[in-house]
Amino acid sequence: xxxxxxxxxxxxxxxxxxxxxxxxxxxxxxxxxxxxxxxxxxxxxxxxxxxxxxxxxxxxxxxxxxxxxxxxxxxxxxxxxxxxxxxxxxxxxxxxxxxxxxxxxxxxxxxxxxxxxxxxxxxxxxxxxxxxxxxxxxxxxxxxxxxxxxxxxxxxxxxxxxxxxxxxxxxxxxxxxxxxxxxxxxxxxxxxxxxxxxxxxxxxxxxxxxxxxxxxxxxxxxxxxxxxxxxxxxxxxxxxxxxxxxxxxxxxxxxxxxxxxxxxxxxxxxxxxxxxxxxxxxxxxxxxxxxxxxxxxxxxxxxxxxxxxxxxxxxxxxxxxxxxxxxxxxxxxxxxxxxxxxxxxxxxxxxxxxxxxxxxxxxxxxxxxxxxxxxxxxxxxxxxxxxxxxxxxxxxxxxxx
Length: 401
Ligand SMILES: *Cc1c(COP(=O)(O)O)cnc(C)c1O
Description:
There is one protein chain. The protein is built from 14 helices and twelve strands. The protein has helices spanning about 5-15, 20, 45-55, 70-80, 95-105, 120-130, 175-185, 195-200, 235-245, 250-265, 265-285, 305-310, 325-335, 380-400; strands at about 85-90, 110-115, 135-140, 155-160, 185-190, 210-215, 225-230, 290-295, 315-320, 340, 350-355, 370-375. The site of pyridoxal-5'-phosphate has 14 residues, from helix 5.
């Protein structure tokens, strides 16, 4: 398939192979690969069954757990969005993708360098699953950049990044870290859920393994859980083997919904970007707001790196209130008319979440002027969202007084 298409064109075309959209010997094709549901695959005879078992099962009908054209099409499309990628495996959640990718590159006795701003279930996996297996995790400052070299030991086998961090939005110097790791033969992984390959094709910046919680922007409609891991030719065989050994797969219905979401990823992200920037810039001017943590604003640590490396910003960011306590923050959030209160993000609807980064940080203690609120800016009219937050800040002031 031609590789010179721009991302919006790729999103419209990727994964629509003729063998998945047409019927052998018949002219014509449907637009999108349909839902192929399967457990058993039937063979013509014993010899046929035996020959299938001896071959690679990648993108071949073998048994339902190895997928069908519905999941292969989605995986192929995600691979195409990451230039330099060999392939993509799909998982039933983003956390499953993170866990399986880490298990694919680490063995007992190995050391993992983990960014201190990582999604907290990622930390939990390191502490509660990897550590008992004899794999040590060392947390590092998200702004460490090339200073990562000073943390590498003979036992370091993998470096995990999340850029920007999905609670506090520090942008990492991904190319610097990836270059140092590659020189030393250390695997690099990134949780790329915030930018997606549409705004940050991670493998082009030297990373080996790009992980998405597809639950967020790929699906885009808050109705499917899914994860993906996309990797370079050097690493992909290990990723694929671990996924097969752990029996990871996704239902064809979920893969079909995620593939449907992927077609509009570009227009959705461009709108999330524009609306979130409007809301963020408005918040930055409010006297009750101490800081807005949004990679496209200069107040965000690593803003210059974002400008250098990313082609856009998505709809998720945080702001820090100027003083106030838990009760005043709750007064702001509880009365919001257009923001839901709940976990996750990346859907079409706006969300507000109280977050306490100090609870998680170990490498670099979290210090802030007041409590933090994380916002997912959805596809509603940003003027409605701003008016809603304006009233929320008035409630915050009243509760604080
Ligand atoms: C939500 C999230 C995940 C996990 O995805 P699930 O599909 O909910 O398991 C991983 N990383 C980040 C940054 C997330 O926000």
